[in-house]
Every structure is written in structure tokens, then in C-alpha cells.
Amino acid sequence: MPNPTAAILVIGDEILSGRTRDANMHYLANELTHRGIALKEVRVVSDDRDAIVAAVNALRTTYDNVFTSGGIGPTHDDITADCIAAAFGVGIDVRDDARAILEKRYSELGHEMNEARLRMARIPDGAALIDNPVSGAPGFSIGNVHVMAGVPQIFQAMVASVLPKLTGGAPLLSQSIRINRAEGEIAGPLSKLASDFPDLSIGSYPFIKDGAYGVNIVIRGAEGAQVDAAVTRLCTEFAEFIG
Amino acid sequence: MPNPTAAILVIGDEILSGRTRDANMHYLANELTHRGIALKEVRVVSDDRDAIVAAVNALRTTYDNVFTSGGIGPTHDDITADCIAAAFGVGIDVRDDARAILEKRYSELGHEMNEARLRMARIPDGAALIDNPVSGAPGFSIGNVHVMAGVPQIFQAMVASVLPKLTGGAPLLSQSIRINRAEGEIAGPLSKLASDFPDLSIGSYPFIKDGAYGVNIVIRGAEGAQVDAAVTRLCTEFAEFIG
């Protein structure tokens, strides 16, 4: 059975302006790989209603799971929840269970509920809440779309709430070999290896370190014996350039 | 006149698997902002022909400039140049000027030209080469699409070759103020500020540091006097929580 697929949608001008470097994509990419869910696409869009709605609809109809990051706070530029409702064509309003979570939280902290904070209890019709043990305000899942906060600590806590509920797949096995040789020197034998092991994914990732060229070869597959056989052959062919 | 727009397309399974954390997006986002080119969207797709062709065509017809990163090396998994040719519906073959650059480079280094390396001289018909002072093998521009290597040192050198040739825009002015208060406490006054300054973009980026909540407010606009006026009002309203 093929592995389930996923896409990530990062929402926020602060990433696109270069002011902030996104951390959520890399974090979730690793978590998905561990669970055997194949991340196929990432998009970053600005805080723009049309852009968000179009991206949500393109991704949710293409992949098994979509995860969004950002835009669900209390301020005027937090428009993700409304965009998700628009993408699904459903209504959105303050929901009692979400409001109760916020009221309990603010009461514990001695903060006041106010109009801005109440916006965080607005949930699209038919969604299920995602627990936020960090700051209270919940995310939500609707259909195959999981809507989470952009602050990395909260995003990670929400990922921990959501992932165990999803269907995973057989974890893809992967081995990585570093070869201290320019990519152009090993491309021929590597191509031969790839065609001899058609069920494996063999990726070649060049790097430059301290002025020297090298390549990380990553061999991925579902069958451990096949991965091992390909790794053994590669290590034999390039023994003098490994280590 | 509105600022020119741009999108970035990052090509590579290694980012999606979480093995590598992308650095090119963040680097280019900053460079574009400095030149007054508005980055509107980023996509990351896997080493898959259909996915690359579809993304290139969607982005190049939507934005003024598209920058791609990755997949132009000598190995079997480097398919970007062929995908770009397919997206534009043009041919692709080894080109004499690109081959001459590679031959000169390898001769200087005492390396041999081989079939794999010659793949890096395959350039879509009608493209202009992008200089690669780091490792020789050129990128290329075709139409409004600029195709560059994924290795960060090479990517950055190619960006330096390409950007001066593009039409920039008036740099957007931006000021950032850190307020040591939870976002929900300042959302009301902030929303009022945003509606009083409709020509400015006022972004609110919450964070958690050492267990305390705070917000970075970023105010962007083309008119320095307006940005200053908004910053002054914000600093006056929240004087006790700044610093």
C-alpha cells in the first residue's frame, strides 16, 4: 500500500519578507517522515485571503493530509480561520467549547477575556479542535486540513496532538553515505546503481565544505535488504572516497 | 507603481524528507526585499517531473519573476533543466557556450569531462546563461524564470549574477517594535492603528521567550513619514511594555 501523502501550507508575510526564518516546515517534515507519511509539497503564501483560499483548495484536493501554520491569533492580520471556512464553503462563529477553553485559561492567568481574544474561539462549522497545551487557544481539523499556530512552540505541541490520530504508513528506510568526491565523478556509476535498483529512491546531494566538493548519497526504500545491498555496492565502488 | 512580484520554487526530495533544512528561500527572501521585489509565494516540490512542470507553469504565469533552486547537477536525479524546457515547450540540448565553460573549468582543475558532466551543458532553447563563479556549471534564465543550483554557496553566487539585471522597485520601508505583552492584550489598539493607517501593512508576530509572551510589530510602507507616525503612536500607547 502506498504511503499516505501530505502538504504543508505556511501562512505569513513575515516568512516571505525574510524577517523570520521558518522553522515549522523542517520540524514537521521530519515528524511526517518518521510516521511514514510522504510530504510531497510545501507552499508559503502571504496574509492574503484569495491566496490562502486558493492554496488550501489546491492542496486538500491533491494530498491525503494538509497542515497549515500561522494566522490563527487574536490580531487583525490573523485571517486563516476565516479563509479555511471560505475554502470549505462553511460558516464560522464563536464556538462554546473553544470559548470555554479560553475563559478557563485566562481566568487561571488572571487575564481578561476581550473581543480580540474571543476571535480565537471562532471555529469553522464541522471542525474538531486541536489541543494547545502551551497557550490554550485551540487549532482545528476540518476534513483533511489541520490548522495550527505559527509560533514554533505551539505548532510543535499541536503537531503532537494531531499526528497520533492520522493514518501512518510503513516507515521508509533510509541510509546516507558521504562520498568525498565531486558529484560529476560519481554520477555515472550512481546512475547505473539507480537503474539496477528501480524500487529504491537514490538521491545525490552535493555540498561544498572548506572548499572541497563532496556528495551525500541517500538511499531510501521499503525493503531493508534492498537498501543494504545498494549501500554495500556503493561503499565497495567508492571505498577510497568514504570516511 | 506597484513593486514587481516574485516566487521561489525549491526542487528537491531532501528538503521534503526533512534531511536538509532549506537555506536558499530565506536568503533570497531578504535579497528580494532589499531590491523592492515583493516575494509572494514559495513552493517546495519533489524531484518529480509532473510536479515541477506544473509548479513552474503556475508560478511563471502569476508572478513577474520566478527563481528555482536545485536539480541542475550531473546526476540521474537532476531533472530540472528538462522540466523547464517541457514547461516552456522548447527543446533542450548541449550548448556550445555552456560546454566551453565546463571544459575550461575541468581543464583548470585537472578533471575529465565525462557524460554526466556534459549533462550540465544541456540548456533549454532560447535561455541565457547565469554565471557560476563557484563551480563553473551555469544556471540559466528563460522568460521570467531563473534556474539556479541548490548548493547554497552556488545559489548565492547565481543570485548575485541575476538580481542586478532585474527591475527592482521602491524599497519598502519597515520598522519593527518589540512589545513585551501578550498579543491578546494589544490586539484591539493594534487593529485601530491598522484601520487609521490603511496604506501601511501592520503585522503582528507573537513569540514565547523564556516562558514570557511578547509580540514583534512590523510596520511597512512606502512613505517614511507615515511609517514614523504609526511607530510613534504605537510607542506612545505601549510605552511601558517596550524595551
Walk me through this protein's architecture.
Chain A is of the alpha/beta class and 243 residues long. The first copy, chain A, has two domains: 5-165, Molybdenum Cofactor Biosythetic Enzyme, Chain A; 173-241, Alpha-Beta Plaits, CATH 3.30.70.1130. Chain A contains nine helices and eleven strands. In chain A, helix 3 (49-60) packs across helix 4 (80-88). The first copy, chain A, is elongated. The mean pLDDT of chain A is 94. Chains A and B meet through helix 1, helix 2, strand 2, helix 6 and helix 8 of A and helix 1, helix 2, strand 2, helix 6 and helix 8 of B. Strand 2 (38-45) of chain A pairs antiparallel with strand 2 (38-45) of chain B, so a sheet runs across the interface.
Features:
Alpha-Beta Plaits; alpha/beta; homodimer; 2 domains; Molybdenum Cofactor Biosythetic Enzyme, Chain A; six-stranded mixed beta sheet
